[in-house]
Amino acid sequence: MENKFEMCPVCGSKNVVTHKIKWTCPDCNFDLYNNVAAAVGIIIVDDENKVVFETRAKEPRKGFLALPGGFVNPDECAEAAVVRECREEIGFEVKNPQFICSFPNTYPYKNIVYKTCDLFFVARVPGHLEDYLSKMNAEATEVTSIKLEKVAAIEDVEKLPMAFGSSINALKVFVKSGK
C-alpha cells in the first residue's frame, strides 16, 4: 500500500497503523479499508479493425491515449457505467457492450494512489468509424481529441502511446481473440 495517513479521521489520533489492505486506529478502533475501485473501458471497433481512442486532457498521463471509460459510480453496474462514460467523454452512444477481460491498474491522482480493477468491453459498429467521427464530441475537461487507429495485430498495440498498462493488455486480448 502506497498511501500513508498520519491522523485518524474519526478521533484525530496520530497512532494510525498501516496494514496491507487497511488502516486502523488503535485508540478508537476505526478501520479504513483500501478497497479496489471499479473502472471501465471500451474498445469501439469497426469492420476494418479501427478503434476509437481519446487523448487525455488531465493527469494522470495527460496527453497519452486512452480508451473511452472511467470509474463506476455507486449503485451502477459496469455495463451501464461504460455506456455512460462513453456518452459523457465522447458523446457517443454504444450499443450492446460485450465484456472481454479485466486487469488491475494503478491510478495516481492528487497525491493518492488508487488501485483499480479495470473491466473492458467491446462494441462493434457497422461500417466505418470515420462515418461516426463527426457525431462524436470530446468533453474538453476529459478529452483533447478523438482519433482512430487500426488495431489488427499486437505490433499495432505496442506502438500506441497508451496511458495505462491495463488498456494495453486489454487491446492485446482483443487482438488475440479475433473479435
Report on the architecture of this protein:
The protein is built from four helices and ten strands. It has 179 residues and is an alpha+beta fold. The strands form three sheets. Strands 7-4-9-8 form a four-stranded mixed β-sheet, with helices on both faces. It is elongated. The two termini are 36 Å apart.
Distinctive features:
single chain; 179 residues; alpha+beta; four-stranded mixed sheet; three-stranded antiparallel sheet; 4 helices; 35% strand
Instruction: List low-pLDDT spans.
Output: none
N to C succession of SSEs: EEEEEEEHEEHEHH
Q: Determine the strand fraction and express it as a percent band.
A: 25-35%
Number of helices: 4
Question: Separation of termini?
Answer: 36 Å
Give the CA-based shape. elongated
What does the main sheet amount to? 4 strands, mixed
Assembly state of the chains shown: single chain
User: Which strands sit side by side, in order, in the main sheet?
Assistant: 7-4-9-8
Question: What is the helix content?
Answer: 10-25%
Structural class given helices, strands, pairing? alpha+beta
Please tell me the overall pLDDT.
95
The gist of it:
The protein is α+β, with helices and mostly antiparallel strands. The chain has four helices and ten strands.
Helix-strand layout with pairing:
Blueprint: E1 17-18, E2 22-24, E3 31-33, E4 37-45, E5 50-56, E6 65-66, E7 69-71, H1 78-90, E8 98-109, E9 112-124, H2 130-133, E10 143-150, H3 154-158, H4 165-177
Parallel strand pairs: 4-9
Antiparallel strand pairs: 1-2, 2-3, 4-7, 5-6, 5-10, 8-9
